[in-house]
Design goal:
This protein is an alpha/beta fold and 418 residues long. It has 3 domains: 96 residues, Alpha-helical ferredoxin (Fumarate Reductase Iron-sulfur Protein, Chain B, domain 2); 162 residues, FAD/NAD(P)-binding domain (3-Layer(bba) Sandwich), CATH 3.50.50; 143 residues, FAD/NAD(P)-binding domain, CATH 3.50.50.60. Helix content is 32%, strand content 17%. The protein has 14 helices and 16 strands. It has a 5-stranded parallel beta sheet with strand order 3-2-1-4-16, with helices on both faces. The chain has a 5-stranded parallel beta sheet with strand order 6-14-7-8-9. Strand 8, helix 13 and strand 9 form a beta-alpha-beta unit. Helix 5 runs antiparallel to helix 6 and helix 7 runs parallel beside helix 14. The radius of gyration is 22 Å and the shape is globular. The N and C termini lie far apart (47 Å). The relative contact order is 0.13.
């Protein structure tokens, strides 16, 4: 075993309360127990333990916000450095890929003739598929593209998540006997009513990928893009020698900024209306961006984008942070008269995403914010249709999407077992 990994596994106290599992991990992976197996050089057992709760260890071990989740809850982190949980999980996931370890099945004979359709092959859809197939259910994934992975494949740059890791992790899931139909888009060549007639249940997990706009003057000029759109379609302009502003404070903003810097932009500036301490992006990602000479303008709002046909400059206004009654998070307020203008060639919006407009044509009840409305059991207004992940307005991280997929699989099994 790698000596550094051995030392990191031995650093874990294997404490009884397990806050890393019970408080920090959305998937409730049994972190102390899998690390104990790593410590004893029993990597197959470590993988077996992880597979009880997750099917994406090589991926989550790399890209989860560990500082805010498992490692942020680690007892050792109170007075020192937390256990390197993400690195240890990725190591086990990589070992499983290298040694062709299988995700074990526990087939339930009562479920062998049941059929479930999954719409969307991202983290939620893949995880739901895996936990259904593990029980012997006939699962078919309907995917809009000609590849699986969702935001894993198109939303996270290669330098954070190698394509080979995604491909191999997905193959482990497909090896459970899952069928895939590519180039299938719901509302176009795929109808929900046909799926509900053919399958015992349907799980919707196709994400929410339409970028949210800032709604400022000039936002429709040539040279203004949505970050998700650029990362997803990889239809980038020529950044060489250009000044790029990225507006937002999450990991998508940082991923976009780092991608554009690596593609030759002369200057990349991230603007965020709150302070650095309030940025939702991972601390490590911010630090890596700074090392790569990406600049940050904290407590700044873009109020106007200038140009006749294309972007020429942006107008910003400085903000101050105030405590509003009933809110725990400080709110940014524009400082009147603090406006100033900076030259710009491109502006990239990384303010989050929303569902597609045709979601209201599915015949399902929606929330006021146009997400699919789900009950606690992930059931929609159609009893045969379940939903989770971004399109249901759930927490927007890979681990939470996977958690939705796994828990939805449990509810689907309950439903089709009746």
């Amino acid at each position: 075993m790698n000596e550094a990994i051995k030392q990191k596994s031995e650093y874990c106290l294997n404490c009884k309360l397990k806050p890393c599992k019970n408080k920090g991990c959305p998937l409730e992976n049994d972190i102390p127990e899998f690390i104990k197996q790593v410590k004893e050089n029993n990597l197959e057992k470590a993988y077996e333990i992880l597979c009880k709760t997750t099917v994406l260890p090589a991926i989550c071990g790399r890209i989860c916000p560990h500082e805010k989740q498992c490692q942020g809850s680690c007892i050792r982190g109170i007075k020192g450095e937390p256990v390197s949980i993400g690195e240890l999980e990725a190591y086990v996931g990589d070992y499983a890929i290298e040694h062709n370890l299988k995700i074990e099945k526990q087939i339930d004979e009562k479920l062998k003739n049941k059929k479930v359709a999954i719409v969307g092959g991202g983290p939620a859809g893949l995880t739901c598929s895996a936990f259904l197939a593990k029980c012997g259910i006939d699962v078919t994934i309907y995917e809009r593209y000609d590849f699986l992975g969702g935001l894993l494949s198109y939303g996270i740059p290669d330098f954070r998540l190698p394509r080979e890791v995604i491909k191999n992790s997905i193959q482990k899931i497909l090896d459970l006997g899952i069928n895939v139909k590519y180039n299938q888009k719901l509302g176009e060549n795929l109808k929900l009513e046909d799926l509900t007639k053919t399958y015992d249940a349907v799980f919707l997990a196709f994400g929410a990928n339409i970028p949210i706009k800032l709604n400022v003057q000039g936002e429709n000029l040539k040279g203004v893009f949505g970050a998700n759109e650029l990362l997803e379609k990889k239809n980038h302009p020529n950044y060489n020698g250009k000044i790029v502003f990225v507006n937002g404070g999450g990991n998508v903003a940082i991923d976009a900024a780092r991608t554009m810097k690596k593609m030759g932009a002369e200057k990349v500036i991230v603007t965020y209306r709150r302070s650095r301490e309030q940025m939702p992006a991972e601390k490590k990602e911010i630090e890596d961006a700074i090392k790569e000479k990406i600049e940050f303008l904290y407590q700044n709002n873009i109020v106007k984008i200038n140009g006749t046909e294309k972007v020429e400059s942006i107008e910003l206004i400085k903000t101050k942070l105030i405590q509003k009654e009933g809110e725990t998070r400080l709110s940014p307020v524009n400082i009147e008269g603090s406006n100033y203008v900076l030259n710009a060639d491109y502006v990239v919006m990384a303010l989050g995403s929303k569902t597609e407009e045709n979601i209201n044509k599915l015949g399902l009840e929606l929330t006021p914010r146009q997400y699919i409305k789900i009950e606690e059991n992930f059931r929609t207004s159609n009893e045969k249709v379940f939903a989770g992940g971004d399109l249901a307005g759930e927490k927007k991280t890979v681990a939470w999407a996977a958690q939705n997929g796994r828990e939805a699989a449990k509810e689907i099994i309950k439903y089709i077992s009746k």
